[in-house]
TrEMBL record:
Subunit structure of this chain's protein: Part of the 50S ribosomal subunit.
SUPFAM superfamilies: Ribosomal protein L4
Role played: One of the primary rRNA binding proteins, this protein initially binds near the 5'-end of the 23S rRNA. It is important during the early stages of 50S assembly. It makes multiple contacts with different domains of the 23S rRNA in the assembled 50S subunit and ribosome. Forms part of the polypeptide exit tunnel.
Lineage, broadest ranks: Bacteria, Pseudomonadati, Bacteroidota, Cytophagia, Cytophagales
Annotated gene: rplD
Entry GO CC: ribonucleoprotein complex; ribosome
Pfam families to which the protein is assigned, alphabetical: Ribosomal_L4 (PF00573)
Name the UniProt record assigns to this protein: Large ribosomal subunit protein uL4
Keyword Transmembrane helix (UniProt): no
Amino acid sequence: MELIVYNSKGEDTGKKVTLPEDIFGIEPNEHAIYLDVKQYLANQRQGTHKAKERAENAHSTRKLKKQKGTGGARAGSIKSPVFVGGGTIFGPRPRDYSFKLNKKVKQLARKSALAAKAQANSISVIDSVAFEKPRTKDYISFLGSVSLGAKKTLLILPDVDSNVVLSSRNVQKAKVVTASQVNTYDLINADRLLISEEALSKLQTLFEQ
């Protein structure tokens, strides 16, 4: 697949790039994408939820009423889960939600996400993006020039550019990552991918490793 290379003003530079078939031309594996997104979201969970169980409740252990003769069920402590303010039965405990996913599955998921975007014609190649200083207005102007102001965008750069990152930080629905930081969730979550020409070759190198 050939794509036109645009400059940061949205103008055709007259150049074209061919997307690597072994990355952007494969049949997307939806299950691999599902697993990788599931792992990514699981890793975002802090897992610090905690409810006090019966043994941890600070109430008195005094027996509430006599054992027999009341006509009701036996009650030994206000800590019992059947009483208001009592301990929680099988309440949540701190836990780690992360799980292992094979490196090759993660790589297949990223390739599949990129291939899906290519098939949906949701990829634009930019020759380069650079700002003299951090300025949100400049990034909004850049998105407007490529007619993407209202869409979720993911800009992929070859290396960290603090001016571009800081300029995009306060823009809703916009995210900037480097080629080595690309993950399946960000790729799927974006409506359109903006890939710099240099980042495209860097992505190809990373997938060959």
